[in-house]
Amino acid sequence: MNPGQKMFHDFVVERVQPGTQPQAEAILADCFKAQDDGTFTVEQLDTAIAQLGQMVRPECQDEFHRASGHMRGQMSHHAAERPHADTTLQFCQSCGLPFDAQHEDMRANEADGTKSPYCTDCYKDGQFLQPDATVEDMIEVGVPHLAVKIGEDEARKQLTAFVPTLDRWK
Ligand SMILES: [Zn+2]
Question: How far is the CA of 121 from the centre of ligand 1 (A)?
């Protein structure tokens, strides 16, 4: 546990109803582990807050919701910042492949030879290679690639939020 985690842990454990400490500690341990692994999401935090909220003593509810609200605000702030970390980074507007240094040569051409906003897996000479693909298909194509870095569940969650925002699916 880092100092911030320890503080929130102690804060919660002191305020839950007698007998629910072990349950509360288990929920907190899951959250902290996800935080340490870099897989913690605002959704997971919301679930944890809802579960812990049921264990917190009535007279401590206000205090608990202030503290957890603060934590949530901090976290969604960081989460919202992440995609903009590199403002020059562009993504294939069909599958979400990042055109970073490793993938820059995967940018497909339009029929007239100019660069398209799509990658060579999705597009060739002005046409989609799979014109009937759905946004759901495209999410599943991306999952194994991103899963290597962040695990399958988190990859699917992020792509489900991201891919539908790309130009092809708007
Ligand atoms: Zn693509």
Answer: 5
Domain assignment of residue 42, given as a range:
3-84
- Which value, in Å, is the radius of gyration of the alpha carbons in the chain? 21
In tens, the pLDDT along 98-140 reads 998 889 899 999 999 999 999 999 999 999 999 999 999 999 9
The answer to whether residue 90 sits within a structural domain is no
User: Could you give the number of structural domains in the chain?
Assistant: 2
Token code pair at residue 1: 């546990």
- Spacing, Cα 40 to ligand 1 middle (Å): 27
Same structural domain for residues 63 and 108?
Answer: no
pTM of the predicted model over 0.85: no
138 CA distance to ligand 1 middle (Å): 8
